[in-house]
Each structure stands twice: as C-alpha cells, then as structure tokens.
Amino acid sequence: MKDNMHKNNRRGSKICRLMLIGLLALLPVHTFSQCGIKNTAFGNGEFVSYDLYFNWKFVWFKVGTASMSTVTSNYKGQDAYRSSLTTRGNEKLDNMFVMRDTLLCYTDMNVAPLYFRKGAREGKRYYVDEIWYTYPNNNCHVKMHEITSSGDHLWKEAEYKNCLYDMMSIYLRARNFNADELTEGEKIPLPIADGLKVANAWLKYGGKTTLKMKNSSNKYRCLVFSFIQREDNKNHELIRFYVTDDENHLPVRLDMFLSFGTAKAYLTGYKGLRNPMTSKVEK
User: Fold this and answer.
1) Residue 277 contacts residue 269 (beta carbons within 8 Å)
2) Which of 16, 39, 41, 29 is nearest to 243 (CA)?
3) pLDDT reading at 147 higher than 70
4) Cβ–Cβ < 8 Å for 98, 111
5) What pTM did the predictor assign?
6) Distance (Å, rounded) from C-alpha 200 to C-alpha 234?
C-alpha cells in the first residue's frame, strides 16, 4: 500500500493545488477599472482553519490542516491587506507525499492584487512562484518569477487588457460577489496565474444547499460551485465547493476529485469575521 502511495507522489500534490483554487476562486475578471472591488466581506484580524481528509480504499483519513489569516498592512508605502495561507500534511499524508505550502499576497484596500508568493514543498520538490502587479495605461502588467526545484530562476513579463489574479487575490475579491446576480447552471470564466502560465478554467454555479460539517453538528446554508478545467479536449470537474450564504462568503467544505481518489477540506474554526455568520443553522 505504501509503495502505491509513493507512486502517486506527484499526482498527489494536486490535492494542495486544488484545495487552494477552491478556497481562492469564485469570480470572473473584467477590465482594469474592475480589478478592485468594494470590500464588505472581511477585515483586519480574520483567521480561518480547516481539516483535510483523503479517501483511500473507501476509508477516510485526516491527513492535514490549512489555515488562513488577513490583516491590514503596508506595501511600498500604500495601505494594503496582507493575507497568508499555510497547508501542512500530517504523517499519514507524508506516506503519499510531503505537503508544506505557504502562500502570501498583498492587495490594495479595494482588493486589487499587488504581490503574490507561493513557497511549496510537495513530495521531494521545493519551488517558489512570485508575481508583481502594476497597472500601466489601464492594463494589467505582471512580472512572474519561478525558482524551480533544481534551483533555476525563470522570469516572464506580460501585459493584459483584462485583469489577472493569483490564487490568493481572486479569493479575497470573490468574497465580495453578489450571488443574487447568478442563475443556477451559469458558467463564469476564471483565468488565474499559476506559475508562469495562465490557467483556462471556469466556474459553474450549482445553486443552494444546507451542509453539515464532519465530526461536528454545525450546519450552514451554502452556495455550491464547481471549478472546471478543459484538458485533453475534455471538461473536468476538479473541485466542488460550498461557501456560506451570507455576507462573509466563507468556504466551509471543498470536495476535490483526483485521478487516484477524493479529498475533502472541512471548516474547523474561525475568528475575527467582519459580519455575523447568519448562514449557520441554529440547533
């Protein structure tokens, strides 16, 4: 069994990547004038935590944790939000692949991205991705930097007429969307910078449901989304995720569909929310 798990090492790192995309992605992008958005969903001092589970031969194992914090800060002389996300696998997950990821981003106070960094140890690989954003002539200019697991430094610069986001800043923007403007089955384009590439993917809105947490009696009224990517001329649902149907729009569960199994992330705690958690179903 352990040998089979090691064979899935590289594929297994998708759990972390898909979890992050699910946590961090909900909205389409538009022109530069809309790269920012009025923030009403979060504020200084928010902290959220999750447990990560993996299905192996019909048995669910807890294999790690994730936590995210957001504080007010300063970036190159301007007021900014500083958000960080860490994921940590436990010994059970280490038998399949090692996961030690740390993500950081700065956005302005209207949640337009300024800087992004991901440092990731996945299996035997350690690599770093960075993105710097500027906005000349109402365009979105990005400077991308990757340090590969072999220590090579790769650089790329590009300019887009539409907004571009990373996995962190799209999450902060998405927390402020208006679900009343969406119809069930609607598809939302979602280009996100991933390393030196821009991923071609979209979201599909799946309506509303009430969801119970694992190992807890807590229930939440949720909005349902699916993250879909086109690969090998086929559409693949990579994640189905559930966010609270209130002004926080906080993800409470993510289902990640992998070629070798299924992973799920469950909300375990939160503090410092800007708005009341009105989606929580009272007992």
Assistant:
1) no
2) 41
3) yes
4) no
5) 0.78
6) 12
